[in-house]
Amino acid sequence: MRTGSGARSSCWPKNGQDCMMLAAAAQEERLMNIEHVLARKGATVITIRPDQSIREALGALALHNIGALVVVDEATRPVGILSERDIVREAVTDERVFDRGVSALMTQDVIVATPADDLKAVAHTMTEKRIRHLPVVEGGRLVGIVSIGDVVKAQRDAYEGEVATLEMRIPPERP
Amino acid sequence: MPDLGTEAHPLRVAIVGAGPSGFYAAEHLLNHKGMVVEVDLFDKLPTPYGLVRYGVAPDHQKIKSVTVAYDKTAGNPRFRFFGNVEIGKDLSVEDLSAFYHLVLFTTGAQTDRRLGIPGEDLEGSYAATEFVAWYNGHPDYTQHTFDLQQTAAAVVGVGNVAVDVTRILLRTPEELAKTDIADYALEALRESKVTEVHLLGRRGPAQAAFTNPEIRELGELPAADVVVRPEEAALDELSKAELDRTHDRTDLRKVEIIQEFAARPLTGKPRRLHLRFLVSPVEILGKDGHVAGMRLVHNVLQATPAGTLSAKPTDRFEELDVGLVFRSVGYRGVALPGVPFREDWGVFLNEKGRLLDPATKEPLPGLYAAGWIKRGPTGVIGTNKPDAGETVQQMMADAAEGKTFTPKEPTAAAAETLVRERQPQVVTYQDWKRLDALEVQRGRAAGRPRIKFVRVEEMLAAAGR
Fold it and tell me: Which residues contact B37 (CB under 8 A, 6 or more apart)?
């Protein structure tokens, strides 16, 4: 076996840099996925029905301080998504937008995620396709929504965690 | 109370679970600028550090030096450790609410997810975490036995626990004897007949959850050759397209390492690690109640609408000749009476760490969670630091608004009286340091980082209880 892996150190790679990387990395659990992002977001998803008005939708966006609403049918299956941007775009040309129905303005062709989707893949998809909100569905049922802000925070926490782990590696070993 | 959080009336917090999250939360609380906070950190075991002591592999000692930071936190005069005290048994959550303003759970993810396939409960099929707890000398697992007389083992999953278990199975007694592995485990592994370990990943090389240093380490085992099938190391079109798009250097490097393994010849080392990709167990086969093999299905990758490359079973099957199975496909938290639990994800129902009433989805005053019991089992040790920080932020905001329990006796002395009444053999941090010093001293003579005490009675004796 390699030398330098005595009782005080059982880190096999050759140099200290690798050892530190190993120290940080070897604790890696399963890759973060959407389930882990949702777990700390509570269980409430703000939804709206397609036959409700844009006025009601704006009320809900303002009340909950969010940027998008998942549009659901009677069985709480997602049938669309309505973002503040959808409303803004329409309001430019249509002064009476407030009285219109949600179904008229919502995006119907919604990309959805599942709790098992990789955070990394979802981050990539959201950036590439310029999606800011992704409904999360499990067994046809809406279980949450992930915003680009949630994704950025999850990634930032992951990086911060790696840095924190490395920093903790710096103190000298106990005698 | 208008003067809550002052020298006269400190905010009193009970933290349940002395793993990394418990210590990081304590650190954040004690360093809070606005309020004077006192922290009592409980653990059901006499020893602190949770998975750093009982999870991190014995051949990764350097990772365990994170405890230096925890010792610093423990040195704060407003911090106390109450080891060997189990919440839910010695004390109830209701008891805590009579002596503390806030209660924070950092109880981790204590059980395994199941594979959900036939044969899972055959003799010789084990949860990988049980094996980990056993070789690390966790007092609840010292009596477990593992059938190491088999020559071939399958380890299902490619997370860090799966990789740890694989490494420990393939290291020689001489290598293990330099670690702080439990003595009985060292003896059992000395007699191990296991020479073939099949590490099974359901997706491809580019999607494997292990990190590059981890996988490189698998290729440097002194007594085991690593074997990768070239056809499984090769990237499929979807993975190739994704890597072309993302140019993720870590993933590219990972694939490179795995493909380099596939090109290696056997060098005649006595043991072999078969690193497999794109396979999932569909059945554990048995004979006379014992594992006698495993039926695998070969997978292909398909993209989900959100962009994840996920495994899809084909109609190609394979039988693996193994007598031993370690299951490592994820972990779940354990519910606690009176605490809202999300059964589907195995976490406490919470929003940024505030526990929620399942009926109203409104915060339950006084109750919080951090770490794996809050977000699920993911991230490195240090990930729990920002995670605990987020929870502590909510706790301090709530405390400032008076949203706390209204304890009858919010004093350190009253809490200690109760604890000692319910559990006379409580272990303090000072007691632990005594135990720690003895373990290190025992190890020094043998050229090992420490020799662990593994039974609660001997721990208590060593701690001077």
Answer: B5, B10, B11, B12, B13, B29, B30, B78
Q: What percent of chain B has pLDDT over 90?
A: 89
Q: Under an 8 A CB cutoff, do A26 and B213 touch?
A: yes
- Whole-structure pTM value: 0.91
Cβ atoms of A112 and A78 within 8 Å: the answer is yes
Across the interface, whether the CB atoms of A117 and B306 are under 8 A apart is answered: yes
Q: ipTM of the assembly?
A: 0.85
Residue type, B347: V
Contacts of B163 in chain A (CB under 8 A): 26
Six token digits for residue B92:
């109830």
Is B235 a residue whose pLDDT tops 90? yes
Minimum distance, in Å, between the CA of residue A137 and any CA atom of chain B: 11
The predicted pLDDT at position B416 comes to 98
> Of A9, A19, A27, whose CA–CA distance to B132 is shortest?
A27
Q: What pLDDT tens digit does each residue of chain A (175 aa) get?
A: 233 333 333 333 333 333 333 333 333 345 789 999 999 998 789 999 999 999 999 999 999 999 999 999 998 889 999 999 999 999 999 999 999 999 999 999 999 999 999 998 999 999 999 999 999 999 888 999 999 999 999 999 888 888 877 776 665 444 4
- B433's CB contacts (< 8 A; 6+ apart) are none
CB contact under 8 A, A40 and B353: yes
- Which chain A residues contact residue B305 at CB under 8 A? 111-113
At A20, which amino acid appears? M
CB contact under 8 A, B304 and A114: yes
Q: How far is B363 from chain A (nearest CA, A)?
A: 10
Q: Beta strands B341-342 and B347-348: pairing type?
A: antiparallel
Chain B interface test: which of A28, A66, A142, A146 (most B C-beta within 10 Å): A28
Q: Is B310 an 8 Å CB contact of chain A? A: yes
CA A26 to chain centre: 25
* Residue given tokens 């519910």 in the structure block: B335
Per the CB < 8 A criterion, the answer to whether A101 and A51 are in contact is yes
Q: Which residue of A has its CA nearest to B307?
A: A121
